Automatic annotation (TrEMBL):
This is BTB domain-containing protein. Keywords: Cytoplasm. It comes from the Eukaryota. One of its GO terms (cellular component) is cytosol. The keyword DNA-binding does not apply. Its main location: cytoplasm. Residues 112-182 form the BTB domain. GO terms for biological process: neurogenesis. The lineage of its organism: Eukaryota, Metazoa, Chordata, Craniata, Vertebrata. SMART domains: BACK (SM00875), BTB (SM00225). InterPro entries: BACK, BTB/POZ_dom, PHR, PHR_sf, SKP1/BTB/POZ_sf. It holds the Pfam family PHR. It is found in: Cytoplasm.
Length: 520
């Protein structure tokens, strides 16, 4: 048969040419063979009439897929299935490769020896297939058809699988073609896992990665945990860390399960204020109460939140944020509210049942510099702040100080730390907290509630006001201290200067605040 450059032309003339060839062959054949040919032609016509009908439009999947639908996609969605209408007779001659011949058999009654009833209710779709092809591509199908308890049924019901997803699976097994889109990716991932086709799984996960955004990060995180996809889950968490506010505001946030909420609230790297986390948790609790058919009372909100409530770091809020929100929510008990107010206002601070460790929304390796070369004993405190001015050559984020502790053995200190913009006298960050020391000459970490941005070549003042017994102090101080990254070789240079006024004696040469802890 002569090939034509236009596909449409080929389709128009294919049947007439084959008819003419059959007629010529028929006229040249003995009468006994003609009867056989007539029977073959009749059988071929019957088979052609039994070819598969077009697949129905693929149904929309759950809300998880709807969230992905807004994303631009480079992969065509499997919204329609190509149905081959070529004559059954001698179709093999029109396919020059094994791949073309197998692709022709996809969703085709020709040579099919099994049918799947996919879906449930009114959405059930009858899909033809070929046991050999399925067994070659899937260990699950191989066991189904050839294992010790192989089925002999020619019709197999799959009520838990979406027809669109099953067709996408078969398309891949028959032709290596990937046809997934926002509407089908999650159900296709489920189907690929069910039938142990890891190559298609990988394509689905890659599709999800490319379409990961802040507004669908929580939904995809839930699915990644459900389908045991740790790499995708890790990418979702990183996205939530970087875009915490937008992710919490997304509509899909309130649809996540409790375990996913707990996994997020446990993280130290969320980039949002704690009062916003509390507000998001309350929104989730209202939605969860509705799912459990409970009234959204404060008691029921606390009940559905469970462990998640203890992961809200109320001590990191300002007293104003706490008083305006959590204190009035009735979700916390009276005892919890009182203890938190005492934590904000008195020293020594009472123990609270909530985490007071700061969240740091910065990635990378923590760095620190020490400005003293030697440690001595007996530095006293009388309510005056130890202060030292500093500047750096590049943008960094200071997350805390290292301070000296008692010379009299294990002791608790109350301390207020601050970073002040020197020229404007603006407090950029502070924390009123405490620390415990063991009596050694080591430094002890005291952290800010949030990272403090430090710009290059700008003067800042580091302050620490300690309440406690005499401590160690540093001597042989250095005016310039440089930190060099072991991985990139980047140098961060600190320059220290005397802070005029009340400084409790701390200077470049000796005193307190020996260590600065930061991220680049």
């Amino acid at each position: 048969m002569t090939k034509h450059c236009c596909e449409s032309e080929q389709q128009l003339i294919t049947v007439p040419i084959q008819s003419i060839m059959c007629l010529l062959f028929y006229n040249l054949t003995p009468p006994t063979a003609q009867n056989s040919l007539q029977q073959s032609a009749a059988a071929g016509a019957a088979a052609a009439g039994a070819m598969a009908t077009p697949a129905s439009n693929m149904a929309s999947t759950a809300a998880s897929n709807a969230s992905l639908a807004a994303a631009p996609t480079a992969t065509p969605a499997a919204a329609s299935v190509l149905v081959y209408r070529e004559p059954v007779y001698n179709w093999q001659a029109t396919k020059s490769t094994v791949k073309e011949r197998f692709a022709f058999l996809f969703n085709n009654e020709v040579l099919s020896d099994v049918h799947f009833l996919v879906g449930k209710g009114m959405g059930v779709q009858r899909i033809p297939a070929h046991r050999f092809v399925l067994a070659v591509g899937s260990a699950v199908f191989d066991a189904m058809f050839n294992g010790g308890m192989a089925t002999t049924s020619t019709e197999i019901e799959l009520p838990d699988v979406e027809p669109a997803a099953f067709l996408a699976l078969l398309k891949f097994l028959y032709s290596d073609e990937v046809q997934i889109g926002p509407e089908t990716v999650m159900t296709t991932l489920y189907t690929a896992k069910k039938y142990a086709v890891p190559a298609l799984e990988a394509h689905c996960v890659e599709f999800l990665k490319k379409n990961l955004r802040a507004d669908n990060a929580f939904m995809l995180l839930t699915q990644a945990r459900l389908f045991d996809e740790p790499q995708l889950a890790s990418l979702c968490l990183e996205n939530i860390d970087k875009n915490t506010g937008d992710a919490l505001a997304a509509e899909g946030f309130t649809d996540i399960d409790l375990d996913t909420l707990v996994a997020v609230l446990e993280r130290d790297t969320l980039g949002v204020r704690e009062v916003r986390l509390f507000g998001a948790a309350v929104r989730w609790a209202e939605a969860e109460a509705h799912r459990q058919q409970l009234q959204p009372t404060p008691e029921n909100k606390r009940k559905v939140l469970g462990k998640a409530l203890t992961l809200i770091r109320f001590p990191l809020m300002t007293i104003e944020e706490f008083a305006a929100g959590p204190a009035q929510s009735s979700i916390l008990t009276d005892r919890e509210v009182v203890s938190l107010f005492l934590h904000f206002t008195v020293n020594p601070k009472p123990r609270v049942d909530f985490i007071d460790r700061p969240r740091c929304c910065l990635r990378g390796k923590e760095c620190s510099i020490t400005r003293f070369g030697q440690v001595e004993s007996r530095w006293g405190y009388s309510g005056t702040s130890d202060r030292i001015r500093f500047s750096v050559n590049r943008r960094i984020f200071v997350v805390g100080f290292g301070l000296y502790g008692s010379i009299h053995g294990p002791t608790d200190y109350q301390v207020n730390i601050q970073i002040i913009h020197t020229d404007s006298n603006t407090v950029l960050g502070q924390n009123d907290t405490g620390f415990s020391c063991d009596g050694s000459a080591n430094t002890f970490r005291v952290m800010f509630k949030e990272p403090v941005e430090i710009l290059p070549n700008v003067n800042y003042t580091a302050c620490a006001t300690l309440k406690g017994p005499d401590s160690h102090y540093g001597t042989k101080g250095m005016r310039k201290v440089t930190h060099e990254s072991s991985s990139t070789g980047t140098k961060t240079c600190f320059t220290f200067c005397y802070a005029a006024g009340n400084n409790n004696g701390t200077s470049v040469e000796d005193g307190q605040i020996p260590e600065v802890i930061f991220y680049t």
